[in-house]
Amino acid sequence: MLVEGFVSAVLDMAPEASVTLLVRKGYDQLAQMFPGRLQWSTTSINPFSQVLGPDDPAVFVKSLQEKAYDLVLFTANSRTWLDDVVGAATASAHRVAMGTVDPAPDRPDGLMDRLGIDPSFPVYDVAVEVKETTPETEKYRLLLGHLAGKPMPLRSPQLLVSGELENSAARVLAELGLGQEEYLLCAPAGTANVSIKAWPQARFAALIARIEKVFGIPALIAGHEQERSVVENVRRLAEQSGAHPKAWLGRDGEMPHAAVLAGKSFAYLGNDTGLMHAAAAFNRPVIAFFGGGHWPRFLPVARTGRVFVTPMPCFYCKWECVFNEALCVRGICLEEVTPEIDDFLQELRDGVQSFRVVEHKVPAADLRDFFERAVRSLDKQKKDLQAERRSFLDQSAELIRLLAESEKDRSNRLEQIAELTKLLLESEKDRGGDPAQIMELTKLVDAAQDVFFKIEASRIYRLARTIGCFDGLDHVISNFRNHAG
Questions:
Q1: For 269, phi and psi rounded to 5 degrees?
Q2: CATH architecture of 171-362
Q3: What is the pairing mode between strands 267-271 and 286-289?
Q4: pLDDT at 463 > cutoff 60
């Protein structure tokens, strides 16, 4: 959703051009909310997995090459191996990347070779220098300026609503007894990819109950069907506090419907989600809770709102949290945000619009408790790793023993084969055997010896591969590889 303003600017800049947006399958459901002139292309290939899946990248590459694009823009700062494939497949085009021309670090082994692409061949022509932590829309503005050859303004993202979506939203609101811009759209989930970045459900419920009691604004708790348990739990807790929230659950392909419900709300309340960006794109006020995983790249582009965050030294961890619990999110206390939200909602009632990021410090007692639990967790992880290492070393020792025994046994058998060969050949020669038969016998013995080498080599090599231990065994492995091909 954040890229919509940039896409519209490109369409305006090149009114006669054919412009295609490449997305993963499923995201194309947003096509009806983007400019109609934009073409959409999809792929089911998962660029965040090393397993290629059923879709053949070679077929994908061929489809790109057949299009003969003139210009290819890579708008994601954090690129994946699939971006590299796209860059390699569109070598005849001018390829502009964000951040760096370096290839992605996560290419599956041998991928480019399988696609007939030189792995060392440049896959990007130009890079637009940006800081990774820069908000996404600012990155797009810099990219647009590069294309135009001068600084360019970039409008905020905007979403279109068709008559079908309008009618669908009207039916939903009528069934729920809610009026346009009279309810709070609450998204307490929306964190399927990163579950730890969700603000606690009980705090959402408490806020919903307070806002309804103090301001008379009911809540519509929204989420995907797969998030039913979260939505129902928040509703139950809010009802226990005297509130009367409604709930809406969407299915696959209904993101546009959810986005329109956010666009018809009085304000958005929730986590850092796609619905948050949809609300902002419809110029609705936003109240959102952020963690530090990618802070502040995905701030909502909203004219009016409050974003709550708890700065910590470990910010920008890309959600690879070493503590397995995001204190940066859980540390946003209900007691501290409540007066801020009260003031904000009152400003909205008074017609005052402002956007502000509100930083809160974690209470010392909570911080101490968190780090005590974190230390215990890290200590357990350390002990588990030590146990795994001991097990690995034990397996390695056993492998070395088996290899040594096999080498000794193989050596004895090879000596026996060599001795048998010598005796057979000497016997044949002593009794004046046919030279051709002697030669054939020699070939048979050599073949038998070669087969023995290959069987032994394959068996031991597979064993070594199974437990991933080659250290200290280079001379053995080299010998096996020579005989096993």
A1: -135, 120
A2: 3-Layer(aba) Sandwich (3.40)
A3: parallel
A4: no
